[in-house]
Amino acid sequence: MMKKSLMIPLLAITLLTSAALAQEPAPGTQPADSPAPAVSKDQAMDQLETAYQKEYAFLEAQLRDLRQQRAEFEAEAARSMNERQAQIDRAEGEWIGLQSRAERLQNMLADAERQLETIDDARSTLEATFLQAGSTLEPFGIDALQSEVYLGAPDGERIDTLFSEALNLLARISKVRETPGAYFLADGTEVQGRILRVGNVMAYGYSEQGGGALAPAGEGRLKVWPGADRDTAASLATGSLPSSLGVFLFESESRAVEEQSDKTLLSVINSGGTIAWIIVALGLFGGILIVARLVFLRNASAATGKIVERVGRHVRKGEIDKALATCKEFQGATARVVAAAVRNLDRDRVHLEDIISESLLHESSHLNRFGSIILVIAAVAPLLGLLGTVTGMITTFDIITEFGTGDPKLLSGGISIALVTTEVGLAVAIPTLLLGNVLSSWAENIKGGMEKGALRVINQYKEHRRTA
After folding, report:
1. What is the pTM of this model?
2. What band does 217 get if pLDDT is binned at 50, 70 and 90?
3. Element holding 224 (H helix, E strand)
4. What residue ranges do the domains of the chain occupy?
5. Using N-to-C axis directions, what is the helix angle for 273-316 and 320-329, rounded to 10°?
6. What is the percent of the chain where pLDDT is above 90?
7. Which of 87, 271, 318, 349 is disulfide-compatible with 416, CB 3.0–4.6 A?
8. What is the dihedral of CA 392, 397, 398, 402, to 10 degrees?
9. CA-CA distances (angstroms) from residue 234 to 145, 167, 188, 204?
10. Rounded distance, CA 385 to CA 407, Å?
């Protein structure tokens, strides 16, 4: 309806414009003198209605064509969109499939790499086994594992050869065999005799000079193990069985076996070197000081009660001179403090307490004798042990730098110093520190007892004055 209402004014304007153009004379002609015939209003409306209908029908036809074209275009666009979406879906499916295939291939590649690494490791282990087997069997005269033919053979043949040679060697050395040879006696003398081997783990030597169970001496040599029974070797050499069989089992003759000596206190200290002996000397000196201070404090503690009792007996009676004479009979810090209090009994209480405090301060140096030195020794001993530890570790690293870490014996000296000095330092420091603090506390208790004794004498004198 809206389109129709818009078309009507448009058609009216078109018709009026056409009528006006029709009334104008053509270019180059003269207008007629007589006016054009007049058109009635009804005729104009009819003409206008007719033109409107024609134009409306034309526009209706155009609109139908446009709608049809639009519907066809929308249908074509929908088909094209569906085709494109289908292509996109197929492409996405193909991409997902390719991605899954790539992941499977990646996993297969990772598995192949792991299998290849496993094969390389197995190959390296196999080659190391071949090398170790060749070096192990070479001392027994088996050189077949070192030949170029063996090294170039397939792994299966090499394994068969290796097991064959090893089994033959086991069969040969597992028997009891007797061969002439040389070995060392317990005093280091090399003698010629007969060596009875039991497999490859035990041997006995017998000669006129001596014999017994043999142990490795290094570089394929043998020696008589200390304490071995010579009769056992002699019995085995003659083919008879001894009542008891002393054996020494060993793994290889290439490395010497040494007898381990029992550790003693001196051997442990010696293994720590000079610093360990310095720590031991400090410990002995600290022990002497502790004993001396213990005796001194014990005498001081025992005399305190006796002095206070005997002096107090005279003070209660007002016999000041006898009390002073009694103080002179005793030697020590307690006697001097009590004597200072007795000489000043006539003074006021505050002054007397100051005199007693001054006497105690004067006697503190005697009671604290050797206390500081003992505590200093307790503090220095672990520091010296730490110094020995650092020195031992420096020595160890120097040996490692020069010789490597192949032989543990080269490292034992530095490690022994590093550990023993620390042990000795702590063994000296712990008891010294403990006893030093105990004696210091005892000295403080003696000072308190001296002060209480002097105050007790003063109180007894005051009581005597009030009674008198």
Report:
1. 0.47
2. confident
3. strand 221-224
4. 1-10+45-173, 175-260, 271-467
5. 160
6. 13
7. 271
8. 140
9. 39, 32, 20, 9
10. 26
